[in-house]
Amino acid sequence: MIAERLAELHARTMTVPWTVGDFEELLSGKGVFVVSSSLPKFACESARGAAPLSPIATPEGAQPLIGLAMGSVVLEEAELLTLAVDPDVRRQGIGRACLEAFEAEAARRGAAVLHLEVAETNVPAIALYLSAGWERSGQRKAYYATPDGRVDAVLMTKRLSVG
Which of 76, 78, 88, 121 has the most neighbouring CB atoms within 10 Å? Predict the structure, then answer.
């Protein structure tokens, strides 16, 4: 149920969305977690794998899933795998809330350094990350395939304060 809802939102937000199978495989991985937001509240909540946690695992009558952040933690490093917000409710703080929830959950799991990659053409996402204290740390040439060709990935890093 969780993978289907995550894939549904991802399909509404990404040029090349992940499938239900992609999410199922990721959710089965060690250290992988999801934070999500649904209407009417924007506060993101954490879920692990297929754990029945409201709001993303609520079957009938569930509020629409409007935001998610998925990441993984290995030792003291975390990677933001994806962040998605429903296009109909963007620019209302949902992406920031999910990013903050991702960072808090990663820290709770022992991460001290966070990493992500984002398409250089995704200017709103880059602005969000920079405003949240992330720093550019590198670039991958022609990393993402898009309908218009390949674009570079911007690598970003954030160190979490300890204590």
Answer: 78
